[in-house]
Write a structure and sequence with these properties.
alpha+beta, Arc Repressor Mutant, subunit A, Dna Ligase, domain 1, 3-stranded antiparallel β-sheet, 3-stranded mixed β-sheet, flat
């Protein structure tokens, strides 16, 4: 994995090492699932979409195996399970250990999802710690609105 894509202070994740440290092997099926998620980074694929893509390369894999693999990878924080309000669980790669997960912009017209990598809530977290005595360890933020394309279409109508 290219270190240039990492945020300052973050560390790349060695998937094989992480599995081995927890007593798991990087089987060919787990590798296939990880490969699909890596190849489709930023696409927020559903379990069924991941299954179809893995099955194209590994026809013997079953849907239950993909589900179990995704559950394991999520528990290990190698991937994140997302709820983008479309009725299914979606997954994205945890490329590196982040202090917090990144945020998502969800277009309420076309359903497009964009990522916001910057953690813009550090000041708020510090204020919460000072005023409430509560240390924020993680948060998930989704912003709803219109993407650039849909805003352009709105002004044409």
């Amino acid at each position: 994995m290219d270190d240039k894509c990492l945020k300052p202070g973050s560390k790349p994740i060695n998937f094989k090492e992480q599995l081995k440290e927890r007593g798991y092997k990087l089987t060919s099926q787990r590798q296939s699932v990880l490969d699909v998620i890596i190849e489709h980074e930023g696409e927020h694929l559903s379990t069924e979409e991941i299954y179809e893509l893995v099955k194209a390369e590994n026809p013997d894999i079953g849907l239950a195996t993909v589900y179990r693999t995704l559950m394991l990878l999520d528990r290990m924080e190698l991937v994140y399970k997302l709820d983008l309000d479309d009725g299914c669980s979606r997954y994205e790669l945890n490329k590196h250990k982040e202090d917090h997960r990144h945020h998502h912009l969800i277009c309420t017209k076309c359903g497009k999802v964009a990522e916001v990598e910057e953690d813009l809530l550090e000041t708020l977290e510090e204020q919460i710690l000072k005023s409430k005595g509560f240390l924020v360890k993680d948060h998930r933020v989704k912003f709803y609105g219109y993407c650039k394309s849909c805003m352009g279409n709105e002004s044409k109508n």
